[in-house]
Structure formats: C-alpha cells, structure tokens
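Page 42, continued from yesterday. The earlier attempt failed because a stray header line got pasted into the input along with the sequence. Redoing it now with the clean sequence only.
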Amino acid sequence: MPATFRNPILPGCYPDPSLCRAGDDFYLVTSTFEYFPGLPIFHSRDLVHWRQIGHALTRESQLPLEGVPSSGGLYAPTIRYHNGMFYIINTLVSGKKQAGNFIVTATDPAGPWSEPYWLEGAEGIDPSLLFDDDGRVWYVGSRMVSNPQFEGHTEIWLQALDLETMRLVGKPLVLWDGALKGARWAEAPHLYKIGDWYYLMIAEGGTGHHHAVTIARSRSVTGPYESNPGNPVLTHRHLGLDYPIVGTGHADLVETPAGEWWAVLLAMRPYGGYFYNLGRETFLVPVRWEEGWPIFSPGTGRVEFEYPAPNLPSHPWPSLPARDDFDAETLAFVWNSLRVSPERFSSLKERPGFLRLYLRPEQLSEHAGPAFIGRRQQHFSFTAQAAFEFTPASAHECAGLALNQSPDYHYRFIVTREEQPLLRLVKRAAGVDEILAQTPISVPEIRLKIEARGQEYSFYFADEAGTWRALFENADGRILSTPVAGGFIGAYVGMYASSNGQPGSNWADFDWFEYGELI
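This time it went through. Structure tokens are written below.
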C-alpha cells in the first residue's frame, strides 16, 4: 500500500494558505489577523509534514496592530521565491497607524524579514506576485468595482512592480471579475506562468459555505482571460451543511521536483452542528492537468480526508512537546498575543523557568492589547491546563486561563478576589458577561484545567490535595465558533492577566502550560 496522509495538514486557525518551493524545500504562510507576531512561516520537504520556523512579522515596527478590530489586521499573504530572495506580500486591514498592501523580504525564510515596503496606489486586498520568465514582476490583487452591479462585486486587477523601488509602475489593468454570473467576492488571486499560458486562479463566493476555486487563462499576462468551462474547479457548496468539510477555497498551486502538482487551500470542519471553533484550516489536495486545465482531487472533485502522499521522500519532524515549561529564553513559535508584542507585558527572565505576565489595564473584552498569550485550538476535543502562582490584591485584579474568540465572545477562567480569593468562570457572549460559577480558592499556587469534548467545555481546578474538582461542566462551546461570533478567527486558549481598567503592578507567574488532544 502506498503511504497516505491525513487532512488538514495544519489544523486550527491557519487560513488563506500560500506556499512556494525553493529547490527541494517548501515554505508556507497563512493569515493571522489581529494576532502578534504575524504570518507564521512553515517549512516542509514532503508537503505533508510542516514545521514552523518563525514568523515574518516579529517587530511592532513591522506590524502596527494597535486599535485594529477583531478579524481586522493581516489578510491573505502570498509567499514567493525568486533569485535567492523570499517575498511575502500582504494586506493590513483597518490599521490605525498604517494600512494597505505591503511587501517584506528575506534571504532566509526563518528570518529576519525586512521592514515593510508599503505600496502606494495598491487598492484592495489579497495581493500576489508573479515573477515572469522575461524578468518582469507583476502585482495582482482584488478590489471593489467602481460601479458595482451587486453586493461584493469585486474585480481582479494587474499592474507592473518595480522591484528596485518597490513601486507600482505603468497602467493598472482589470483582468477578471469571476467565473459565475454575479460572482460575489472575486478575491485571493494567484497568477502563474505554466508553459505558454498565464493562469489566473481566484476564490469567489465569499470565504464561507459558498466558497469556491475558479480559474481562467490567457496567452498574454494582460489578457484577455478565458474562463475554464469546468469552473468552479473546486467547491463544496453543493454538498450540504452536514458535509464534514465545508467552505473550500483560497487555493495556491505548487509543482514538486518530480513534476507533480499540488494545491493548498482553506476549509472548515463543522462539529456539533454547523459550528467550527477551529476556524479555517489548511488542507492539501492533488492536482492533475488535462487539456490545459487543472483537475483538483482527480476522481472525486472533493477535498478528502486521506490521499496517497506526494511522490517525495517522507520527512516528518520531531513532535512538539505537549507541555511548555517556559525554560527557553524566548517564547515558542506556537504562542501569540493580541495586537501588541508580548514583550510589553511578559518576561521569561524575571523568574527563570516561569512565564511572568504583568497585569495590564487592558481587558480581553476590548479591541486592545491585553496581557494574553495563547495558542490555537487544534482539536475538536482537547485538554489545556496550567500551573501558576498569583495573589490578587483587589477585586480589579485577575489572572488565569482564557478561551478567546473575540472581544465579545470568550470564556475567562480566572482567579480574582472579593473579601477573599475566588476562582471565577465568566462567559462573555454578544458582549455581555455572565458569571457561570465561582468558589473560594487558596493562593498563591493554583492549577487550572479546561477540557473540551466537542462543543461541551468543562472547567476544573486542583485542590490542595492535588485532586481535580469541577467548577463548571458542559459550558456551551458554540460561542467560540464563527457562525455565532462572526469574523474570521478560530478559537485560542491561553494565559491571561488584567487589572481591568485600573493601574497595577501585580503579576502572575506561570510555571507550565500543557495542551493535548483528548481521544
């Protein structure tokens, strides 16, 4: 039997994937929205096993996210490799200090990456680059039509890019507005030169249930482009709301050294109804060419959970540990904060072997930079637990764990105080807080655990004898899903501390944090 692999190749909130090949190595990047650092970079040698090697945007000077609303920030990056240089082109949406389309570069995809080159005159979102074989470089993106005929009427446009000045030059040209009559949200364009043809592959239908991949081609980069009569080349919108993989779209193509073609794309896995707490994830599908057009997932036309592996030497990476003991000098790549660098409110050096979170006035319920360090939920059922030390000095202070979807939808599992220290579970839905349970607790040493079994989330704490006790069981996990909360983000779980609008100098010391799948 040939070796096989399982989808998704990147579980959890890793949407809008783009990839490139440099020799025998593949590199992949995905969107990160309001999370910091931005744009995780993954490395693979077989397209199946991926190891994160860094982020493209690790400095606040590269990534001005303060004030960005939930599901604003970084949309739809494209990564390309040309003449020894890696390029990522991306959109910063709703930035207060800076917004628009920009390019960063690096000779090593692990970084460091350059400061952004902001592109004047680059309207819209979802930019991509084509390095043509005649030496020209082309910018392609999506923007609103000047006189739209319907809601979401966008067009794909092209302009030359001068790499030396990082400026768009020449006349912008409109290439296509999608395959379907009345196609909404023609976006996510990628332009390829394959043989004598230029191929323009896009997403349309919106990045939800009606998402689709369509493609057109031309003998000239400037068009006119003919639509593939087989469009859409990939969609699941006709398979029903109860299909296990939905929302397929936003694809990017790559050719292996052996001449095989593959595509990465995003899709969602609903569970417990039409809810997908993990957000939009990265999947891999085989592609075959017939009569000058790509056939996605030949034989079924659907994204499958299992395929024969690419014709490449298998190259798994060492498994990441389930527990982070915070013994390193820097945070592991799995961790993210909201809008600002964790250097503003955390330290791995103040108390070696602990992650210290300093309480900030900012709260998880604000479009701000609270003291939150979290990681993606990557499984339907999981356990997350942590040991930490914290003594709240007032009712304003809290620290503990949080399950975050957005400022208006999350759970806070926190130690605070009234007359005495309390452990409290707060559910926030539609912007309204509800205390689900609370109990007195001994401080400063505390252990908390969250267990999710499908859409039921339960919250436990360890008493002085080390025995786990339930604070609240079977809370509604559906509020952590996009169909309820809106936006584009999957759920995160992590560590949180706040002085809730008041100045403070207190801190919480996290000894370890552990995350793993529940079977």
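Notes: DSSP finds one helix and 39 strands in the chain.
Reminder to self: strip header lines before submitting.
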